[in-house]
Request: fold
Amino acid sequence: MIPTQAHADKRQIFAARLATARQSTDHLFKLLRPAALVERPIPERHRLIFYLGHLEAFDRNLMADAGLGMPAIHEELDRLFAFGIDPVDGALPSEPVSAWPSEADVRVYNSRVRDAVDRCLEKVDLQDESLDAAGALHVMVEHRLMHAETLAYAMHRLPLELKLAPPDSFPPEGGLRSASAGIRPDAAMIQVPAGRAMLGLGRDGRFGWDNEFEAHAVEVPAFRVGAFKVTNGEFLEFVRRGGYEERSLWNKSGWEWIRKSGLRHPSFWGSGRSGWVFHGMFQDRPLPMDEPVWISQAEAEAYASWKSMRLPTEAEWHRFAFGAPEGVEREYPWGSAAPTARHGNFDSHRWDPTPVGAFPEGRSAFGAYDTLGNGWEWTSTIFAPFPGFEAYQPYKGYSVDFFDRRHFVLKGASPRTDACLLRRSFRNWFQPHYQYLYAGFRLVQP
Reply:
């Protein structure tokens, strides 16, 4: 088949997207001091040296599995860096630092892989539908951008002395303000009428991960939902009133986890000389009462029980985030305009959370603030396939391995979520005791 100009343009677009994604992850590794790479800031995860090699190994392995003519680079490292770890309660990796290659060896491997991937990309036939080369390239780019976020929250756990703060690390004083300050508590709950939520993605040529398919409608009864994510200040009352000590607020597994872990406050909090502090990416600061609390799903459910409310379902979340009184769902909560820094705290414009409701231009049609950005939002929905689900063959384990009824759906985005992942159908998921990601919640009343 003779390449067309459109074919050449598509190849250039993919090459540019991949280059930009690589810059994102390269930038993060440049913020680490050399000693940080052998650290394991999240006990359930690999040491950071794994992620340095994983991003390149994934690209090589995917192109090979998709039949795109990718040769083996280093068979041992191709396998070593192939897959990460799904954190399971009590199952902590314990291999020594010596089990991993040196940073120098990993960087040599990475260079060889990138060269091979780029050469392969120059030759691949994007018009050959039997290979779905375009789908594989989309997966490569979005996989890397998702890891840019997971790497960021792993780095967040490192001691400050192991990180090099970039010039944009510290926001100016007196900046963004919360929109919640002047709103009465009774007015902070939004009435959402009964209606239809359209979940998933239609098979019309648009890219999506396998768990996003297929599109289907869900009828949602009327409910009330918080206009804002729950804040640190609100959650502090739960802590002060002994919420972590009250057995009746926790389900069985949550209570066992709290007892075993010894957790008595959100893991992003700490105690300072003058009271509570928030552990930011590059600095500790007095706990900001008007910013969203970032916690695990188990903690969010316990707080909801304390308030005699609950977490939203995935369909309810879609309804208040993308729905509209006229009945037609929006592409984004604010409408059809492309996401910008005016619409929310996402796309890596900031390292830490901002006050809730600080981006009124991003408000949904029903009046919910920060549905995209400032932290993912936990739902009560167990991560499961949609009707018509088909595993993506070159990466069959992406979703299927997590359809185990131990993971819950999160929706929205965090400060480090790339703009391309803000599509309505995108689904995130984690186990309920995972306390490390940038995730908050809001409350629902029937």
User: Anything to note?
Assistant: The mean pLDDT is 92. DSSP finds ten helices and twelve strands in the chain.
